[in-house]
């Protein structure tokens, strides 16, 4: 692969040197790759934090996969194949993580127990609160909030996955929030 | 912290870890190396399990030869697909993944056509055939998964499916020269279906076994 018109080594040349253990060439390669991929990701993702996170994952993958690059081939298709995959992977993981985070913060907080100003009940008992729920949701929330078991313990006790515990609890909290904060059920 | 500072630190760390690496051989070289080992495994497996007594007569049957040729094609195309998918950017288009499936489909069509023509609708028992397919598929399968994982597969499910399909076809090929029952219904139920099933299992195995960490 030829050098660029400005005389700077091409990405293929730099990668060839990096594969031989040239740290300077590798640093130069990764810096140029980072600039290219940052611009590439910014065209697809708005959040700068997500761009940097996905970029770092892509760089790590490029590092792990560097033995698969053949010097006689063009560097860019190899690089973008890894980058695309890492970006999609990162976005998928983040969607699952954000959903889980919302449920975790609900599990830890008790503010959903406080009735809103328009609530028909001035100070509902926990039993009154829980009686509004279907049986499995009632059971899960009772174990989490009254028995103060962890998600893992509830999962083992009921024989359901931890995700199922979180999803069930989350649905229960949504019903209770609507019912006891004066919103429509 | 300035945007990009952590990235710069990461770049410096990675550059500090820049030990020499030997580039993997081209896909066709890796394929040939694996095929060589796989053929040896098959030959040994058939020798142990026992070549069918009527092998000479079977060589003269057109449908047997046609199916053997088809299975060789499925195995090679699938393995080529798995090796190609193991290198980022090597796959030029979805055809690489679809062609082996078309070949499997052609095998099914051939068997159904023979069944419809009434050329053998007795299925017979075939659990030993399933066993033989597995026994013949596992050794080259383990090697193929190791070789694919040694690269950097991105499409894990497809890589696993193609690798499993390749060795399953190889197992079916070897079994064809062990099992004397060439009835198309028997082959459909006890050779073809296990190959398809193993291909699907390969999707799961690929997702579990072929994942490489980011670093």
The greatest interface between two protein chains, and residues involved on each side, is: A-B, 39 and 30 residues
- Helical residue percent of chain A? 55-70%
Number of contiguous helices of chain B:
8
- Beta fraction of chain B: under 5%
Strand content of chain A: under 5%
Per DSSP E runs of 2 or more residues, the count of β-strands of chain B stands at: 0
Through-space gap between termini of chain B? 24 Å
* Strand and helix order of chain B: HHHHHHHH
Helical residues, percent of chain B: over 70%
Q: Write down the secondary-structure element order of chain A.
A: HHHHHHHH
Outline of the structure:
By secondary structure, chain A is mainly α. In chain A, 67% of the residues lie in helices and 0% in strands.
Overall description:
The complex is a heterodimer of chains A (185) and B (215). Chain A is mainly alpha-helical and 185 residues long. In chain A, 67% of the residues lie in helices and 0% in strands. Chain A is built from eight helices and no strands. The relative contact order of chain A is 0.09. Chain B is an all-alpha fold. Chain B is built from eight helices and no strands. In chain B, α2 crosses α4, α2 runs antiparallel to α6 and α5 runs antiparallel to α8. The longest helix of chain B has 26 residues. The mean pLDDT of chain B is 91. At the A-B interface, α2, α3 and α4 of A face α1 of B.
Descriptive tags:
A: 185 residues; mainly alpha; B: mainly alpha
């Amino acid at each position: 692969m030829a050098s660029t018109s400005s005389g700077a080594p091409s990405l293929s040349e730099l990668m060839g040197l990096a594969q031989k253990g040239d740290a300077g060439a590798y640093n130069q390669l990764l810096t140029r790759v980072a600039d290219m991929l940052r611009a590439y990701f910014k065209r697809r993702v708005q959040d700068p934090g997500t761009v940097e996170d996905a970029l770092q994952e892509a760089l790590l993958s490029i590092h792990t996969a560097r033995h698969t690059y053949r010097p006689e081939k063009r560097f860019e298709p190899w690089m973008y194949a890894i980058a695309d995959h890492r970006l999609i992977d990162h976005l998928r993981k983040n969607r699952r993580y954000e959903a889980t985070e919302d449920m975790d913060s609900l599990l830890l907080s008790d503010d959903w127990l406080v009735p809103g100003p328009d609530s028909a009940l001035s100070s509902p008992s926990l039993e009154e609160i829980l009686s509004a729920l279907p049986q499995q949701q009632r059971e899960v929330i009772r174990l989490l909030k009254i028995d103060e078991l962890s998600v893992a313990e509830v999962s083992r006790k009921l024989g359901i996955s931890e995700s199922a515990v979180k999803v069930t609890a989350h649905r229960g909290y949504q019903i209770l929030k609507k019912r006891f904060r004066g919103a429509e059920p | 912290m300035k945007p990009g500072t952590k990235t710069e630190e990461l770049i410096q760390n990675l550059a500090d870890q820049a030990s020499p690496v030997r580039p993997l051989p081209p896909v066709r070289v890796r394929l040939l190396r694996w095929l060589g080992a796989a053929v040896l495994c098959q030959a040994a497996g058939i020798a142990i399990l026992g070549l069918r007594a009527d092998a000479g007569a079977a060589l003269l049957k057109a449908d047997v030869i046609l199916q053997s040729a088809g299975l060789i094609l499925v195995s090679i195309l699938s393995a080529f697909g798995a090796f190609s998918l193991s290198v980022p950017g090597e796959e030029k288009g979805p055809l690489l993944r679809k062609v082996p499936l078309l070949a499997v489909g052609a095998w099914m069509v051939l068997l159904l056509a023979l069944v419809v023509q009434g050329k053998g609708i007795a299925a017979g028992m075939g659990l030993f055939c399933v066993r033989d397919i597995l026994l013949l598929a596992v050794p080259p399968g383990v090697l193929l998964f190791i070789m694919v994982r040694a690269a950097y597969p991105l499409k894990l499910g497809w890589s696993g499916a193609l690798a499993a399909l390749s060795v399953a076809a190889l197992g079916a090929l070897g079994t064809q020269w062990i099992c004397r029952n060439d009835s198309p219904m028997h082959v459909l139920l006890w050779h073809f279906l296990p190959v398809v099933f193993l291909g699907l299992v390969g999707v799961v195995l690929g997702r579990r076994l072929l994942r490489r960490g980011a670093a």
